[in-house]
């Protein structure tokens, strides 16, 4: 029943009663009009595990109808997307987002990058399992059918969940890895992207942080700067995301949220995905990094960039200033 992380803004509701919550949601949708405030009050303040129990209670007490189906027919737009996202278990939501990113013409590369570059091996294995079960094909087949070239190879490497997750740092290998990357990029004409892939997608975090330090000594540049100089497009984006997630996942997500809201228009798909998927894991850290990096609170950004019930539910997930 506990929350899935200990740095989330959404924590376990005390005195939780799934039957009561199911009833409240039913009342909120009965008759003409919908009581959106009541829906927000329940769903934005329950953990994913608690929401699964509410779904079960709803089906048992209200009859054959699934809660998602009722909510889907009552709500619309971005608010609906947030609510339905909150009702999905984590790997189900990730798989759903990946599927949506590859649907129809064109691909939302940002979604593939955000998810595949930031999930642990166990999270990735769970996503692969769900994807196959829900959509009848492997995630690898889907990604291969929708992407190409080196970008595809990096994504496939990430989704096979083969990263070493130990804490071991091999000093001699760290120096060699840094040298290899330098020689594969800055030190030559053209770039040997495979070398970047074999180091960045396979080694453990502690080891790679040492590699990045060594790399700076050799090249007099941060690895991120070299990636920007050596690559472009989606390949640049995915390698940068990997490095940033290794340095700090909360900082990576803070930057993604900032970019989704700055300037004209909002990239709502990114905003929704991060708010829904991180609310119970590390939203407190994301907010801290956001404030430190941009001098304004995430709360104020969301407030200024969204409206209506969509804004209200995001602000609840954000958890105050």
From TrEMBL:
Disordered, as annotated region: 1-21
Taxonomic superkingdom: Eukaryota
One Pfam entry name: Annexin
Membrane association type: Peripheral membrane protein
GO MF, any single term: calcium ion binding
Gene Ontology terms: cellular component: nucleus; plasma membrane; zymogen granule membrane
Signal peptide: none
Keywords: Acetylation, Annexin, Calcium, Calcium/phospholipid-binding, Cytoplasmic vesicle, Membrane, Phosphoprotein, Repeat
Cellular compartments annotated: Zymogen granule membrane
InterPro entries: Annexin, Annexin_repeat, Annexin_repeat_CS, Annexin_sf, ANX4
PANTHER family: ANNEXIN, ANNEXIN A4
Family listed: Belongs to the annexin family.
Domain-related comment: A pair of annexin repeats may form one binding site for calcium and phospholipid.
This protein's name: Annexin
């Amino acid at each position: 029943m506990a929350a899935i992380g200990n740095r989330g803004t959404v924590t376990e509701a005390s005195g939780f009663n799934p039957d009561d919550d199911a009833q409240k949601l039913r009342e909120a949708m009965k008759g003409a009009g919908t009581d959106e405030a009541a829906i927000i009050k329940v769903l934005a303040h329950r953990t994913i595990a608690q929401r699964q129990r509410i779904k079960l209670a709803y089906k048992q007490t209200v009859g054959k109808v699934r809660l998602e189906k009722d909510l889907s027919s009552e709500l619309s737009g971005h608010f609906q997307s947030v609510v339905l996202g909150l009702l999905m278990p984590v790997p189900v939501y990730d798989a759903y987002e990946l599927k949506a990113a590859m649907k129809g013409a064109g691909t939302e590369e940002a979604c593939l990058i955000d998810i595949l570059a930031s999930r642990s091996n166990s999270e990735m294995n769970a996503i692969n399992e769900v994807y196959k079960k829900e959509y009848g094909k492997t995630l690898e087949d889907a990604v291969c059918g929708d992407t190409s070239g080196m970008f595809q190879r990096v994504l496939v490497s990430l989704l096979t969940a083969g990263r070493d997750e130990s804490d071991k740092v091999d000093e001699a290998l760290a120096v060699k890895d840094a040298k290899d990357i330098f020689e594969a990029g800055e030190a030559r004409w053209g770039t040997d992207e495979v070398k970047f892939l074999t180091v960045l997608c396979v080694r453990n975090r502690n080891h790679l942080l040492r590699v990045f330090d060594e790399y700076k000594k050799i090249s007099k540049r941060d690895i991120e700067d070299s990636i920007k100089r050596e690559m472009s497009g989606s390949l640049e984006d995915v390698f940068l995301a990997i490095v940033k997630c290794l340095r700090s996942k909360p900082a990576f997500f803070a930057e993604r949220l900032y970019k989704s809201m700055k300037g004209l228009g909002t990239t709502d798909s990114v905003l929704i995905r991060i708010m829904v998927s991180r609310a119970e894991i590390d939203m407190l850290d994301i907010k801290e990094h956001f404030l430190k990096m941009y001098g304004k609170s995430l709360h104020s950004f969301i407030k200024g960039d969204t409206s209506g019930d969509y804004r209200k539910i995001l602000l609840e997930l954000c958890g105050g200033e």
